[in-house]
Design brief:
The protein is of the alpha+beta class. The chain has four helices and nine strands. Strand 2 (70-76) and strand 3 form a beta hairpin. The model is unreliable at 1-14, 35-46, 168-179 and 184-200 (pLDDT under 50).
Length: 228
Amino acid sequence: MHSREAGGARGTRGTLPGGTLSLLVAGVALMAFALALVMPAGTALANGTPIHITLSYLPNVSNWGPQNATGVAELITSEGEARVTVAGLEALSGADEYQTWIRTAEPNSWVRLGALQMTANGIGRMDTVLQQPIPERAWELMQVSVEPKGTQPTAPGNRLTVAGRFSMTPGGGVPPKVLPNTGGDNPVTGVPTTGLLGLSGGGGVLLVLLVVGVASFALGRAGARRGA
């Protein structure tokens, strides 16, 4: 009889009381939630985050057209999406069109994205989805050139207008101080750099420390009650 009771006591000595176990589970859940809050939203969606490029008349790159032409571009490489808007371009004859390209630093690495659709006031737009995703390469330059209409050359010709340098960092690129006036709504530039609830890195660390402190205090109180 006594040996069975002693054995039962030994069997339950290593088991946490129900209240303490619940507090421990709650603390772990809070920690996971806090880490999700402080993690930047773009981390999990990096490939789907737009890459922004500023277009202008670049010295030693551009050689044709108005030097005050400006534009903005947006690429989503994983989806093969490319959006370009350029203002101040010179009107072309019916035999020519503006085409958009990107390239790396390697020779013969040009990739044609598509042609700009021009309006009467000199604004060119392109909003296209390529058949394949844009390869994740070290793209260096976006270039707009003048080409014979309807052609699909493998590299831009010798009439090079606005261009822009960019990195493959999602959301990278410095937006222009004044965006081209296209007559539409004011575009929103940039990507958020904070967590899911708008917390900065320092605020997120404080939140994690607060959660850890609360969980530790609760576990300490539960242990004190059990000891009493």
